[in-house]
Every structure is written in C-alpha cells, then in structure tokens.
Specification:
Length: 418
C-alpha cells in the first residue's frame, strides 16, 4: 500500500506524497479510518483488522481540499466503509455534503461515526447512493441524560447564581444570593417537564427525572411511542407541540435539528410565565436571541444550555445572565461514552460489511426507499452496459461519460471510480 508508518494500534498512516493504489488483486475489503487510532477496544480492533485492510490517513490529508483530491485520485483505493471512532477528530474536511459524498467510490457501503448528532452529514444524499450512516447515539445516552438532569435541577434551584456568588469572593454577592435564592427557587417535584423528542435519550432523561425528581412527564414527538414505553415513565403524549408547551413548567429539547428552531419567539411565548428551558440537543434548536429576550422580560425564569448555536462561541447576552446555566457541549463527555462510541463504530462497520443489519443506522428507511442505487455490488458483473448481481437482477444506477447518476436519475460530476 505504498509508504506507511504504523501507529501503536497498528493502523496505517498513508503518506500521500508517494502513495499509489494497489494494482494487484485486493484480498481484503478496505476500511478508511478517520481520526485518532483506537484507544480502548483494541481487541475488537485487532479482530477487525484481521478481516479488513484498515487505512488511517495522515491528519494533513483530511483538510477539505486535500481530502477531495485524494478521494478523486483514489489514493486509498475502493474502500467499502468509513469509520470515525472519536467525535473530536477525523472531521477536518468539514460537513459531508453532496460535494464530498459524490466523490466516494462505488464500493462504499457504510459510514459509522462517534457522536449522537449527525447534522454535519447529509444522510439523504448518502442514501441516494445506497450508503448507510450509523451514529453513536446509544453510547452517549447515559451521559447526556445525566447532564440533562443537572441542568433541570439548576434551572429550578438557581445553581449557577449560587455558584457564581460563592466564587466571587465578594461578601455582598454571597449574601445577596444566600438571602434571595430561597425565595426564587423551587423543587422540581410535582412540576411538569415537557420533552420534545422522546427517543432513546429523551426516554432515558424521563426515567431519571421521574425516579429522582418526581416530576410529571409529558412529551411531543412526530410519532407517539408505544404504550409500554410510555408506561415506563408515566409519560403523556401531546400530538401538538404548542399544546404541550402551554402545559409545561420546564421544556427540554432532545430532538435532532430539522432545519428550523424548535423554540423561537412565538413558541417561547406559549410557555407559562416563569417557565424554564433546557437544551441538550443542538444549539440551533433554539433561537438564542429570542430566548435572551424572554429571559430579560422574565417570561422565562431560567435556562440551561449544554449546546450553542455558534459553537465554540457562546451567546454574549446569555453568558452574562446569572439565571442561565451554560456548559461546553459536554453532555456526552465521559470515558464511558468514548469507549461506547469506539465500540459501536466498529460493530456497525463489521455488521454491514458482513451482510448483517446495522446497529444504529439513521437513514435505513431512506436507503430502503431507493430501490435502484448507484452502487456496484462487489459480486456484480457488467452485462451489455448493465451491472448484474449474482442473482441476475440489474442495478439501475449508472455512470455515463464521467457523470454519476443516483437512483433517482439526478446527475453529479463523477470523480474517481467511474
């Protein structure tokens, strides 16, 4: 595979200055490993590397312009999978949009990454080309749920105000907080928590809140959960987000970003006076200026945010408010989460490459919805210009005159394996 340097985990750094694709037959499918080497699940990684060729490019190769060139030149060959075991490395190329995705080889089947959120990758475009995207949601559930619990307690009991006053080393500030907080804070017990998004993380939060805080749980989601899941947390479903907000003493956002803020000036106005807001999903799920306005008007009494719209920058207005608890998007930040992310990434890749069902595919329905795909199966053969599978069926996706066509007939400029 050209000049390589081995890391402690025995994956390969490809020196892009002199690396050339292998011309002979490849005996193992290739996995492209983005980011730092595996740290925790080394036995699993060893098992994976015994069955697959794992290539880990140099960090300099991951900058967007260089990364695009290497994909176009097929520097790393016809890889079948991409794995990114750590959320904070391996993303140097920026968002995975159509520009990047259309450069992937037709052998590509699955992309698995650490992290629960996936707003940085266009899973719809991946699905056009039959590529599954698997996230690490299950691995971070416990850590994120604990962070949510912290923020919920903080917005009811004004923990940030108390902490800042204690750290001020100012007797007057200490005394003010000591005397005033008891007449402004409430115990969460008996209050209503409205959860937007009762997925794995939302449900885990509801379980902790019910058990530890004794709050009433109501929720809004695009799909009502099963009676069994609702009974586990005594949750009541609201088919209308607006109606749920009107009934909430505290609203918690635990849903993926869909392109528009979940809470804006209008929806914040629907909350009862003195309500509280907690966000552990994505910063852009809240219009932060509208939230600051609602806090300044005292319509909202407190807010807790682990995520921010312009990370790593935090809203200047919100950062100055003593009734706003802010953390640095560390909801999922624990060793246990990192171990779980790493493991889940490798398990997802292995499952898909072995023909089994992925553990955490987020775009499975979209992939299934594309009956015809621009993907050449490894066992397919060309017959009269068509790709025929082992069972004789024809793959309708095609590459013609340097243009790659997805299953829906849309064309994109093909660079690389055409």
């Amino acid at each position: 595979m050209g000049s390589t340097a081995h890391s402690s985990s025995d994956t390969k750094h490809i020196h892009t200055s002199n690396h050339k694709p292998t011309n002979g037959p490849i005996t193992k499918p290739i996995i492209l490993h983005l980011g730092e080497p595996v740290r925790y699940n080394r036995t699993l990684h060893s098992q994976l590397s015994s069955k697959y060729e794992i290539i880990r490019p140099l960090p300099s190769s991951l900058q967007r312009s260089a990364f695009k060139k290497h994909l176009g030149d097929k520097t790393w060959g016809d890889f079948s999978a991409i794995m990114r075991p750590f959320w904070n490395t391996g993303g140097e190329m920026g968002n995975w949009d159509r520009e990047l995705i259309e450069l992937l080889p037709t052998s590509m089947q699955v992309m698995a990454s650490a992290g629960a959120g996936f707003d940085w990758v266009d899973t719809g475009v991946l699905a056009e080309f039959g590529i599954l995207y698997c996230n690490g949601a299950h691995a971070s559930t416990e850590s994120v749920a604990l962070m949510a619990l912290y923020h919920i307690i903080s917005v009811f009991r004004h923990m940030t105000w108390s902490s800042l006053a204690a750290r001020s080393n100012d007797a007057a500030e200490w005394t003010t907080a000591h005397q005033q907080i008891p007449f402004r804070s409430h115990n969460p017990e008996g209050h209503t928590l409205g959860i937007i998004g009762l997925g794995n993380i939302g449900h885990a939060i509801a379980k902790k809140v019910k058990a530890a805080l004794g709050m009433k749980i109501i929720y809004y989601d695009v799909i009502q959960k099963t009676p069994e899941l609702e009974r586990e947390v005594d949750a009541t479903f609201y088919p209308s987000k607006e109606e749920m907000l009107r009934a909430s003493d505290c609203v918690l956002i635990a849903t993926p970003h869909t392109g528009r803020p979940v809470l804006d000036a209008y929806t914040l106005s629907l909350l009862p006076a003195g309500a509280r807001v907690v966000n552990i999903a994505r910063g852009v799920c809240i219009d932060e200026d509208a939230l600051a306005d609602a806090l300044e008007s005292k319509h909202i009494s407190a807010a807790g945010l682990d995520v921010h719209a312009q990370e790593p920058r935090v809203s200047e207005r919100l950062s100055k408010m003593f009734n706003v608890t802010l953390t640095c998007h560390t909801g999922g930040g624990s060793i246990e989460t990192a171990v779980g992310f790493e493991k889940l990434v490798m398990q997802n890749v292995e499952a898909v490459l072995e023909g089994r069902e992925a553990l955490t595919a987020v775009n499975q329905r979209l992939v299934d919805g594309h009956a015809s795909r621009d993907r050449e199966p490894t066992n397919g053969v060309k017959v009269n210009g068509e790709t025929r599978n082992a069972d004789g069926s024809v793959t309708n996706g095609e590459t013609t005159n340097g243009t790659r066509k997805a299953a829906n007939g849309t064309a994109s400029t093909a660079v690389g394996n055409t």
